[in-house]
């Protein structure tokens, strides 16, 4: 109590501190914002403007860079591919993980912990290590230039984290719920499908959001799997576009800015699940 | 070991009674129930086990297997066995050795600059201040963007002739820099981009850790006469220990497998000055088709991660998790 009373008095330090605090935070905020704002404004300039006036506002504003990208079917195709692959990845990851997590959480059997440990160790297998043999295996199964060639490996590498998060959630649901369900005639699958999954909706949302974001941003795998530009995702598209038009900075900036809008919009909507999932993933994994 | 889980597994294992019909005698149906339970377990685990074995375990085993062969990547399995030749070649490969040095540099920079910066900002954001939620949202935004987008944005920003960064330096009278096109500066430019992309992630983790520290503890320390520095040094910092150790772990593992950002930002250049293990592996494997040799690099990456993970868990994380990361949750039974 006395501490609070002392703090409340107006001293120079009490005024100076918030100002210092805000200054630091604002400087860092500027560091974060500058590349994004530079991109947005740069997209509205033409190349001579970019060279002579990289800092100021566009004069005049040139919307053609953006409208050209929005009019190109390649861009929309990539948005579609990224969405299709991200949603399918999330669906497969969560469905497969939920089944396994259910068994890991609520059944006792020999080798359970061993098997779970192997799955969880998947967290430590970096994607980059597996990429080369993965390419060979996907080629063997004829999955190159096929969206499944990206969806399935992404789901497989997402299993570890998803199973860990879902298992700990499934464990937290009291046994009484399960007993009541069984007495009312539920099979194990019935309990899982009609009771456990609906109860686990928040956890399912969290792991789905994580899967979507990871898939959306993945670059390495689509880069090696999709030779055919029909299936390029946005990251691959951005990289190829910036290579193709390397002299036309303004055009590239417009493309990059438009490519980041879906991710930022998704972040704005699903911020809570995303951050909840990442902190849960880091502390549990 | 079979039924350590207690009553719920026994109940789950019993056959399905019809609605409103009393459960059958347990003894009579014990065997049928057991078989049923086993089938349920197998069916539920099967999709996960197949997916995981085929697309996670098999690639890693295949990488290990092909790392002792000379192989151009045609077919499913290599045939030209060369023993540890690929690995001895790696020891003479200046680019590979450079990858290791550059990785070490990035790890040191991350631990000395990036993580302390993130910690400081998390502690600032933990205070009551206006627009706190907005700052948090802003700092985390780069993490949500693809590394490709970050890389392309910064390659424009840092471009020597037209980039914004040189304009600002010139305006401040600090001269100009060629950032990404000089071997001397490229690693530091790369590190700035890494920091831009990832520090928000660590801020979020530290914030979550800080918020889980009960208020009573810091208040008690204040009442006992601790100044802000002492509260930080003797209360907050030790209690953030688990979070800090996890972030160090994530940072090191992330650096070992760094690929996207470097590949798009610099392609590993100029003259390999920013190349990482992932980029070298990609180049050797996918551009030069020396799959066996590239697999040897994969194996080195894998072993580095594994040795670090196991050692770190054994000696550092042990205190926090009461078990290894690999048995997460196992300790919570």
Automatic annotation (TrEMBL), chain A:
SUPFAM superfamilies: MetI-like. Residues 79-270 form the ABC transmembrane type-1 domain. Keywords: Cell membrane, Membrane, Transmembrane, Transmembrane helix, Transport. Gene3D superfamilies: MetI-like. Coiled coil: none annotated. It holds the Pfam family BPD_transp_1. It is found in: Cell membrane. The keyword Cell membrane applies. It comes from the Bacteria. GO terms for biological process: transmembrane transport. One of its GO terms (cellular component) is plasma membrane. The chain crosses the membrane at residues 20-41, 84-107, 114-138, 150-170, 191-213, 252-270. Its main location: membrane. It is a multi-pass membrane protein. Belongs to the binding-protein-dependent transport system permease family. PANTHER family: ABC TRANSPORTER PERMEASE PROTEIN MG189-RELATED (PTHR43744:SF12), ABC TRANSPORTER PERMEASE PROTEIN MG189-RELATED-RELATED (PTHR43744). This is ABC transporter permease subunit. It comes from Herbidospora solisilvae. The lineage of its organism: Bacteria, Bacillati, Actinomycetota, Actinomycetes, Streptosporangiales.
């Amino acid at each position: 109590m006395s501490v609070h009373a002392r703090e409340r008095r107006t001293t120079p330090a009490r005024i100076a501190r918030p100002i210092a605090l805000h200054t630091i935070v604002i400087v860092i905020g500027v560091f974060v914002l500058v590349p994004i704002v530079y991109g947005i404004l740069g997209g509205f300039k033409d190349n001579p403007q970019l060279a002579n006036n990289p800092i100021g506002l566009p004069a005049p504003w040139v919307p053609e860079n953006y409208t050209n990208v929005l009019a190109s079917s390649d861009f929309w195709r990539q948005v579609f591919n990224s969405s299709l692959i991200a949603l399918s990845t999330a669906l497969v990851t969560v469905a497969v993980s939920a089944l396994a997590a259910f068994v890991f959480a609520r059944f006792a059997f020999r080798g359970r912990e061993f098997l779970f440990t192997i799955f969880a160790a998947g967290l430590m297998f970096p994607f980059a290590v597996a990429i080369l043999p993965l390419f060979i295996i996907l080629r063997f199964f004829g999955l190159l230039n096929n969206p499944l060639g990206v969806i399935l490996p992404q789901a497989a590498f997402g299993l570890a984290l998803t199973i860990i998060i879902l298992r700990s959630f499934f464990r937290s649901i009291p046994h009484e719920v399960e007993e009541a369900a069984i007495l009312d005639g539920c099979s194990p699958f019935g309990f899982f499908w009609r009771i456990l999954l609906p109860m686990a909706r928040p956890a399912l949302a969290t792991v789905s959001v994580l899967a979507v974001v990871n898939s959306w941003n993945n670059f390495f795998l689509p880069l090696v799997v999709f030779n055919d530009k029909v299936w390029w995702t946005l990251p691959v598209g951005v990289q190829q576009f910036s290579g193709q038009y390397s002299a036309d900075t303004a055009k590239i900036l417009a493309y990059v800015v438009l490519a980041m809008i879906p991710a930022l919009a998704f972040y704005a909507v699903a911020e809570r699940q995303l951050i909840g999932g990442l902190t849960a993933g880091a502390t549990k994994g | 070991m079979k039924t350590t889980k207690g009553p719920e597994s026994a109940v789950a294992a019993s056959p399905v009674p019809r609605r409103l019909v009393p459960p059958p005698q347990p003894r009579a149906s014990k065997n049928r129930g057991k078989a049923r339970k086993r089938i349920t377990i197998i069916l539920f685990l099967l999709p996960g086990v197949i997916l995981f074995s085929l697309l996670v375990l098999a690639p890693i085993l295949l990488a290990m297997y092909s790392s002792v062969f000379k192989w151009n990547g045609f077919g499913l399995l290599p045939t030209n066995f060369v023993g540890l030749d690929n690995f001895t070649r790696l020891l003479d490969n200046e680019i590979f050795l450079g990858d290791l040095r550059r990785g070490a540099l990035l790890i040191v920079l991350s631990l000395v600059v990036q993580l302390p910066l993130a910690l400081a900002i998390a502690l600032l954001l933990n205070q009551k201040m206006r627009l706190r939620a907005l700052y948090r949202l802003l700092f985390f935004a780069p993490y949500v963007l693809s590394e490709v987008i970050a890389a392309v944005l910064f390659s424009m920003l840092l471009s020597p002739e037209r980039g914004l960064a040189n304009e600002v330096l010139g305006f401040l009278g600090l001269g100009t820099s060629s950032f990404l096109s000089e071997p001397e500066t490229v690693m530091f430019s790369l590190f700035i981009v890494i920091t831009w992309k990832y520090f928000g992630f660590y801020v979020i983790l530290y914030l979550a850790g800080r918020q889980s520290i009960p208020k009573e503890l810091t208040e008690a320390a204040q009442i006992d006469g601790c100044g802000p520095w002492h509260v930080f040094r003797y209360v907050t910092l030790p209690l953030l220990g688990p979070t800090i150790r996890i972030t160090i772990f994530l940072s090191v593992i992330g650096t070992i497998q760094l690929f996207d950002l470097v590949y798009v930002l610099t392609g590993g250049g100029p003259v390999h000055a920013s190349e990482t293990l992932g980029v070298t592996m990609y180049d050797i494997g996918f551009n030069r088709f020396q799959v066996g040799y590239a697999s040897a690099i994969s194996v080195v990456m894998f072993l580095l991660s594994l040795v670090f993970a196991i050692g770190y868990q054994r000696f550092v994380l042990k205190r926090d998790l009461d078990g290894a990361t690999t048995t997460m949750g196992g300790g919570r039974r």
